[in-house]
Amino acid sequence: SRSGNGDSRGALVVLEGLDRCGKSTQSGRLLTYLKGLGHSTELWRFPDRTTSVGQMISSYLSSQSQLDDHTVHLLFSANRWEKRSLMERKLKSGTTLIVDRYSYSGVAFSSAKGLDIDWCKAPEIGLLAPDMVVYLNIPPEKAAERGGYGDERYEKLEFQRKVSHSYQVLHDASWKMIDACQPIEDIEKQLQEMVSDCVRICQKGKPLSFLWS
Ligand code: DGP
Ligand code: NA
Ligand code: NA
């Protein structure tokens, strides 16, 4: 069939956006919704700070360590690679994964520092491609107003403006965009509709694909 000839599987749904765009709130609500429908679903996030690579990233983000920009880029990528095989097993066993940040954050944040975009994309090649990327769109100034930023390294308005620009270069027609300035419940509803279709198509056996596709 056109929808694919593989086995039924879970969907890989990625949420992207600036810091304070509401991704974490929305991914939590989406998890509750999909579980409520009886779908096996897990919420993941990158960076995954629980691994040893993740601890190096966490220490860098809290400015407890300094690292060369290229080095930290590769650590973020390694942090996704170390979860790749588990990710594939989960999807193939029918579990849908909602992922709070993925390779697009990797490219957007590092290219915002001035690193070459193709260099930034290279280490992500071969990771599993999301079935859907939802971008929660918020002007950097609005995000900064939301209870302010924490004190992590990237949570500065000037830098977030650059990240916003990088995301604009990166996203294509396959991304779904949601206006993140709407009321929480409106965003939640729109997300539910988008993701329900995606989950259905993956259940029908849409084949897995790989970055960058
Ligand atoms: P979070 O835990 O979602 O708040 O992410 C921590 C910070 O790290 C946030 O400012 C976004 C940034 N970030 C997430 N993924 C990557 C990545 O792959 N590369 C870089 N350079 N930064 C990232
Ligand atoms: Na953050
Ligand atoms: Na977040």
Distance between the termini: 21 Å
Question: How many independent structural domains?
Answer: 1
Report the bound ligands by name, code or SMILES: 2'-deoxyguanosine-5'-monophosphate, sodium ion
Give the SSE string: EHEHHHEHHEHHEH
Radius of gyration: 17 Å
Highest-level CATH class: Alpha Beta
Structural class: alpha/beta
Low-pLDDT runs? none
Query: If helices are DSSP runs of H or I spanning 4 or more residues, what is the number of helices?
Result: 9
Fraction of residues in H or I helices: 40-55%
Largest sheet: 5 strands, parallel
- Can you tell me the CATH architecture? 3-Layer(aba) Sandwich
CATH-assigned homologous superfamily: P-loop containing nucleotide triphosphate hydrolases
Strand order of the largest sheet: 2-3-1-4-5
Tally of extended strands? 5
CATH topology name:
Rossmann fold
Shape descriptor reads globular
Average pLDDT score: 96
- Beta-strand residue fraction: 5-15%
Protein name: Thymidylate kinase
Family: Belongs to the thymidylate kinase family.
GO cellular component, one term: nucleus
Pathway: Pyrimidine metabolism; dTTP biosynthesis
Tell me about this structure.
This protein has 213 residues and is an alpha/beta fold. The chain has a single domain, classed as Rossmann fold, CATH 3.40.50.300. It contains nine helices and five strands; from the N terminus they run E-H-E-H-H-H-E-H-H-E-H-H-E-H. A five-stranded parallel β-sheet has the order 2-3-1-4-5, with helices on both faces. Helix 1 packs across helix 9, helix 2 packs antiparallel against helix 3 and helix 3 runs antiparallel to helix 5. The chain is globular. Bound molecules: 2'-deoxyguanosine-5'-monophosphate and sodium ion (2 copies). The site of 2'-deoxyguanosine-5'-monophosphate (DGP) has 13 residues, from helix 3 and helix 5.
